[in-house]
Amino acid sequence: MKVYLDGRMVDEADAKVSVFDHGLLYGDGVFEGIRLYGGNVFRLEEHLERFEYSAKAILLELPLTRAEWSAAVCETCRVNGLTDGYIRLVATRGIGDLGLAPWLCKKITYFCIASKIALYPPEFYEKGLEIVTVPTRRIGPASLPATIKSLNYLNNILAKIEAKQAGALEAIMLNEQGYVAEATADNVFIVHKGEILTPSASQGALKGVTRGTIIDIARDMKVPEREANLTRYDLWCADECFLTGSGAEVIPVVKLDGRTIGTGKPGPVTRRVLAEFRKRVLVEGTRI
Ligand code: PXG
Fold first, then answer.
1. pTM metric for this prediction
2. If you measure from the C-alpha of residue 34 to the centroid of ligand 1, how many angstroms do you get, rounded to a whole number?
3. CATH number of 2-115
4. Which CATH superfamily includes the segment(s) 123-283?
5. What is the dihedral of CA 97, 100, 104, 108, to 10 degrees?
6. pLDDT at 166 over 80
7. Is the four-CA dihedral 56, 61, 65, 70 of positive or negative sign?
8. Annotated catalytic, 160?
9. Is 202 helix (H, G, I), strand (E, B) or coil?
10. Ligand 1 geometric centre to CA of 287 (Å)
11. Sign, Cα dihedral of 168, 170, 176, 177
C-alpha cells in the first residue's frame, strides 16, 4: 500500500510520523473519513469543505488548496488500485516541543490513506442493531464544538467501550442537557408519524455528510423532515430509527435500552432511504 504523506507518495512501511507530532501528543489536528464507491469519491467537495472548516476552527492553516487536496485524494486511490474503499485524510499541528504551545510547531503534518473499512457485520444491515444509551456525554459546544472533526475522540471511544460492556455494538450519546446528540461515529435519525427527525448540530451532532445526503433524499422523496430536540423517549417510541455515517452508511436500529423500536424490524422508510442512498453513492462526487 502507498500512503500520501507530506506531499509525497511513500510505501506503507515508510509512512511514519514523529513521536513529537502534536497530533499524537495532544490530539491536535483534524481529519475526514470519506468513501470511494465504484471509482467515485462520494461528496468529496463536502468533505473537503468540512475539513477546511474544522482546520479554521482550530486555527490550523492547511498547506494545500481545495484542488490540491482533491488531487491528492484521487491519486492515493489510483496508485493503490482501489475503486471501492475508505479514505482517511489527516492534518496535524506537526512536530513540536513537549508542551502544548501549537505556535512552536513549524510544519503541519498531513497525510491521506486509502484502504478498506467494515464498521458493522453485514447481517446487521438486514436485521438492525440493538443498541444502548451510555453514561458518557458528548462534549458541549462551549468546550469543543461537535462540528469540528478533530483528532480528540476519547469521549466517543469511552462511549464505544461502554456500549461493548453492555453487549451492544453502538451507543447513543446524550448532550449535557440530556438530549440525544448522536452515536459514537454516526448521526441518528428517527421516523415518527411520517416525519424524519434528526438532532441539530447545536445539540451536539456532527454535520455528517451522510446525514446531509439523507436530508436531501427525504426532500426528494417528499417525506417531511426536520431537525428536532430528541429525548431517549422519542427514540424508544419512534416508528423507525437508523444511524448514518461514512463508515456505517445507513444502518437500522431495532432496539434501544431494551425497548423494541417499531415492529422490531428495519422499517419501510429506512429501507427506501437505504436503497436510494446506495444509488447516490455511485454518482454524487468526484471520479478518481
Ligand atoms: N458523528 C461523528 C462523531 C462522526 O465521527 C459522523 C457523525 C458521521 O458523519 P459522516 O460525514 O461520515 O456522515 C461521524 C463520522 C471511523 C470513521 O474510522 C468515523 C466516521 C466516519 C467514517 C469512519 O471510525 N465518523
1. 0.96
2. 9
3. 3.30.470.10
4. D-amino Acid Aminotransferase, subunit A, domain 2 (3.20.10.10)
5. 100
6. yes
7. negative
8. no
9. helix
10. 22
11. negative
